[in-house]
Amino acid sequence: MINQLVNALSLSFSMFWEILWALILGFILSAIIQAIVSKKQMSRLMPDDSPRSLAVATGLGAASSSCSYASVAIARSLFRKGANFTSAIVFEFASTNLVFELGIIMWLLLGWQFTLAEFIGGPVMIIILAITFRIFLKKSLIEKARKQADKGVAGVMEGHAAMDMSLSDGTLLQKATSKQGVTSISHYFVMDWSSLWKDIALGLIIAGALAAWVPNSFWQSFFFTNDPVLSKIWGPLIGPIVSMISFVCSIGNVPLAAVLWNGGISFGGVVAFIYADLLILPVLNIYRKYYGMAMTVFLTITSYVAIVLAGYFTEILFGALHLIPTTRNALVMSSGISFNYTSILNVVFIVVAGILFVRFYKTDGMKMLKMMGQPQMQHDEQKHEHEHGSCCH
Fold first, then answer.
1. How many CB atoms lie within 10 A of CB 35?
2. At what angle do helices 51-63 and 112-136 cross, to 10 degrees?
3. Are 345 and 21 in contact (CB under 8 A)?
4. What is the pTM assigned to this prediction?
5. Radius of gyration (Cα) for the chain, nearest Å?
6. Among 131, 178, 326, 386, which is least packed by CB within 10 angstroms?
7. Is 30 exposed, middle or buried (CB count within 10 Å of its CB: 0-12, 13-18, 19+)?
8. CB atoms within 10 A of CB 181
9. In the chain, which ranges are continuous DSSP H helix?
């Protein structure tokens, strides 16, 4: 039993070591974008569900990378400030499914084909979701959701959603390289790590355990690998269900997806599994608090349908283009660390991360970190003090 546990943890750590530099790079790029792109005008840029507003919501969401809990909190904040509900939900999906760090981790663990599928299928999913909302979402349901949202019931990460440390003066380069810009980048960098490390760790631990303890024969039976047609139909249908009950969201889903791919789930099933990070049970419970039960049911059904159809789309498209990998060798079955380019990159980026952590600590970052999980009202009361304190000196 001890040997099995050690083996599972060893596999988990090996996966973590393989993707560490990419995680740091992704969070740095995300922090830079958040530091130079203000949230203040986001709601005004998404006044309706027109193609232009939805495109803006998608772009802003992809630029505002965050964990699933934070993205849900930000979407409610935008909705309460006047953003269109559909655009706010599109922003939410883009901020967890169309971000740089997710793509690069998928490339490392699964292969470039999955990264390409993620960024092709993502917009398709958003289009399907928007069309479904346009047809079936009633104004009365939106008004009920707005009344519930305005109650400000606490979920998770409201403080993070309310924070805006972006700079308003200067060019993009000047913002990113100024003393205040570096401070803002360091704060976003550490807060993103703080909000995501549990999901990443949980995903790696579960993936290591599944890879070490569950034989491929079980997965092959579960995913109907002996029947190629049935497997392709079943994959996108069951992928989101597995994601829902895994309790792992955002980047933490990728190691799990690698295990499922090696086990026999279809290409489209992997894509659907990753898209479903906003359907995990804790997020659905937050939906209930934010928008009420009726809207939660609506969001669950429409999101599931959009995710499944996007999974089928990528399966058919990549199959027709012969881009689906013919081997199932996702990076989950090797253990141990060897001295190679990955180790060198990890050392370099660990040093960079250390510099940002030091900057964060020296600029009153711990106070900001404590505000992340507070209700927005408490956050607003402390924000004025923070803005006139030492965080940007």
1. 25
2. 140
3. yes
4. 0.77
5. 21
6. 326
7. buried
8. 22
9. 2-36, 51-63, 68-80, 85-97, 100-109, 112-136, 139-149, 158-162, 172-177, 179-213, 216-222, 228-246, 253-263, 267-275, 281-291, 293-320, 341-362, 365-371, 376-387
Residue 72: count other Cβ atoms within 10 Å of its Cβ.
Answer: 28
Determine the Cα–Cα distance for residues 247 and 269; give it in Å rounded to an integer: 18
- Is the CB of residue 105 less than 8 Å from the CB of residue 22? yes
Q: Which pLDDT tens digit goes with each residue over 60-81? A: 888 776 667 778 888 888 888 8
Categorize the per-residue pLDDT at 381 as very low, low, confident or very high, splitting at 50, 70 and 90: very low
With the C-alpha atoms ordered 343, 23, 256, 329, is the resulting torsion angle positive or negative?
negative
> What are the tens digits of pLDDT across the range 147-196?
998 887 765 555 555 555 656 666 666 666 788 888 888 988 888 788 77
Token pair of 224, please?
């109907």
Better-scored residue on pLDDT, 115 or 80: 115
